[in-house]
Amino acid sequence: MHMLAAARGTGRLVNSSSRRCRIEVRSLQADRMDADGRQLLRLTSSATHSRSLSTAAVAPRRPSTAPTTISTNTSATSYNTSSSSASARLSQLNNHIPNKVSNISTALKYSTTATTTPDKMSAQAEHPTVLIPGPIEFDDAVLQAMSTPSESHVGMPFVHVFGDTLTQLRQLFITSSPDSQPLILSGSGTLGWDVVASNIIEPGDEVLVLHTGYFGDSFSDCLATYGAKPTQLGAPIGSRPSPQEIENALKGKKYKAVTITHTDTSTGVLSDPKEVAEVVKRVSPETLVIVDGVCSVGCEEIRFDEWGLDVVLTASQKAVGVPAGLSIMMLSGRAIETYKSRKVPPGSYYASLKNWLPIMQNYEAKKPSYFATPSPQLVRALNTSLTQILSVPLSQRFEEHKAASKKIKDAVTSFGLKQLASEERFQAHGMTAVWLPEGLTPADILPHTAKEGVVFAGGLHKQAATKYIRIGSMGVSVTNPALGHVDKAINALKTGLVAAGYQLP
User: Fold this and answer.
1) pTM of the predicted protein model
2) Three-class SS of residue 49?
3) Range of the domain at 232
4) How many domains does the chain have?
5) Cβ–Cβ under 8 Å, residues 64 and 167
6) Residue 3 lies in a domain
7) Does residue 472 contact residue 134 with C-beta atoms inside 8 Å?
8) How far, in Å, CA of 211 to CA of 260, rounded?
9) What pLDDT digit, counting tens, does each position of 21-62 carry?
10) Helix axes 156-173, 353-364, angle to 10 degrees
């Protein structure tokens, strides 16, 4: 399984008796210019190594079929641009590789050359290992994708990347419905709340918010800001509302939507969107099912079509594996029709689906359009990360996160500690929230773990913030075990506890 992590890059790894890594970059050239003037750069490489290691993925573009033309009534201006020569593009790229690497071949070599310590298996500058519930550690190839030169956000090279990335999101969310629509907006995951509250929900609408921590409170505040009437259905810290409680709430009042925080980052509590959606469909089928998947998309199973979800929103900086700055959403056809039947205009300008739906439809159809400027570098990084994620079955990725999570949680138990989410079925697989020993606070522990080169997060739940810490285990820290991040987290926690005066069992 772990050899798959090594195979995600462009290098091909083969066992050898020699204990060194040799990577041969045979060529980096433009294969052709397509009808739109797009450059297709292909990088081929081979490598030998005596043991499994991770290779940065700079995957060649997958061929795509011509999309169906989508007609819109938008008045957005369209532009056509021609690409510069491939050799000029390569010259530009060579000048924008991080860490003063002189050319792409060297950058690839640096990102795949191993030394005797796991932390050296990266081209990144020395830094503490960030193991919080987001932002997470990033793969070299993702960061390199952000180091491209400036380009036009309506030029065809970028339009093709953006369109491909929107299509990749359909695979990530497991939706094949032609009525669903992915969105990629510049902003944090919180922007997804605004999109929901200002477009799909109208002033005066009743919304049932399933509360499992801090982010249930925050989503409620956002909904109320736009005039909705949120009702929170809560549970004790570390738990979640039961199906029967949800059913009773739905029978007691007509709700426009139910919101679910799939993983509440403040508590590490995992909700079950499939279970909730089944209750909603049985009791109140007209009610929309909206999932906050900021800390779950990419590490927890989500089946958008099969489960009957209407909105899933997330962000780039967690299990999706891209630096912060992108708000990512998937809307169902029913959610879009709900927006279109609004009685009043959307309550936001930047977050308005009136502005964004035509733009996303056009980009996915490889047609340049403009409403507000996206980030070409972040979108290219997202494309790189999604290429890596989708290079193996999603089921395998989810199992890898479960295994890493279990290893950390088993260690927590062996240290005599408990989690906020006391029952296994309530425990997220991308993070762990750990109650500290009596008398200790995050301020007593975190400075010691920092000395071990590891960054954990303090508590966030307003009722218990000083009593626990949070450990993230998402993305490359899980899928590239050669980095040793999971073991490093466990050792840092153990060392920090002892240094703070705690006596291990």
Assistant:
1) 0.77
2) strand
3) 160-389
4) 1
5) yes
6) no
7) yes
8) 8
9) 323 322 323 332 233 333 322 322 333 333 233 333 333 333
10) 100
